[in-house]
Amino acid sequence: MATEFKLPEVGENIEKATVIRVLVNEGDTVKKEQTLVEIETDKATIEVPSTVTGKVGKIKVKEGESVPVGATLMTIAEEGEAGESRPARAEKAPKEEPPVSRKQEARRAEEQRETAAAEEAPEPEEDSRERKAAPRREARVEQLTPAARKAPPAPGQTVPASPSVRRLAREIGVDISEVEGTGPGGRISEDDVKAHARRQAGGAPRPARAAARPAVSVSADLPDFSRWGEIEAEPLNNIRRVISERLSLSWQTIPHVHHHDKADITELEELRRRRNAAIDDPARKLTVTAVLLKVLGKLLRRHPKFNASLDAANNQLILKHYCHIGVAADTERGLLVPVVRDVDRKSISELVADLHALAGRAREGKLSPEEMSGGTFTVSNLGGIGGVGFTPIINLPEVAILGVSRAAYEQVFDREGNGRVRLLLPVCLGYDHRVIDGAEAARFVREMCELLTSPFDMLFEI
Predict the structure, then answer these.
(1) Domain 2-96 falls in which CATH fold?
(2) 158-188: per-residue pLDDT in tens?
(3) How far apart are CA 25 and CA 326, in angstroms?
(4) Span 5-56, pLDDT tens digits
(5) Are 248 and 216 in contact (CB under 8 A)?
(6) Catalytic residue set
(7) d(CA 325, CA 110)
């Protein structure tokens, strides 16, 4: 029989992917675990291997095509078999699926309960009436008052929203029961959640459903640029699209404040160069980013607000007792933020190894969605490229981010007027002013700078 090779589940909350490359042709013989296609999700590029050994039959997708999870990519006739197609064996063999943690199992169970509740809930009365009396829809919408369009759900009533939409609402601190649904029967979409978050942050009144608009990517009409010369339209890839949406939402909902300072890293840089001179393996060389992670692990424990998330819907601050720091990485496909786990519990050597491994997978496009989720704080270090400073945008649902620029030698004067040339590192802390006060941010940055200035004292402090 021919096996239907389907797009497997590649990560939590990922429902579709774009086919980047098809690496086989019809009639090719393939082996089990051989990569057949490369796909791109909202977060990463992933190689999808074959689950069987056999000959490729019909290829049903093209490069650049967007396909949902579970769609058939191609058929494969297993060795010594022929006939009708059957589902891929991988779907019936749970042992071939990647191991699932208890936390992931709990999340999936929650999603299944929410989905089942949504499917069992009675069809919204408004939706059934609209299908029966479609010609009168416009008149009916005009007669409804804002209160009638979105009444609060009755006790026990299920809010019409998918598990992925509910998760987005939780991440950005939105009460899903208060969101205005613009879909059929009041169903809530991701755009509805984002629009509600913008109104919640700005204190704007809730608009009528008929006037609802997308929360992100609202832009002015562009002129016809071809009037002045030759142009080329380049579609945004999935990663760039998600970056655009998430950063727009962050900038529109979070009252950003940026605190600038400079750290004297003269002694630290001398220590780093001496250490690296005796090491041949690039994976073990000490970097400024690794030192920053070690320092931040200590400071985030000391200042838990900077390691938190704001739950605005329930008027509470979620304080996290773990420290996972995302490190922005520049790649050919766009900005990726792999997450280093348990920074506060690891040695400087372990942090160096983790950073090197994650950076390599980011450049190769092999980061998994799990490796880019769960961050509590973010570091963006542009020192290797240049610049004297920049103001980073906070990565929702975090409340702070550290931007680092290139260190430069400057003359520094003491109180007696004596000048010395020192190596100064420009840093900028971006923070959510709803959660963090200016004085708290200044103390956080100053403590960080003092630790970086005295590497010998830092060893005992950390």
Answers:
(1) OB fold (Dihydrolipoamide Acetyltransferase, E2P) (2.40.50)
(2) 667 776 777 788 777 788 888 888 876 677 8
(3) 39
(4) 888 887 766 788 888 889 999 989 999 889 899 888 866 778 888 888 999 9
(5) yes
(6) 433
(7) 26
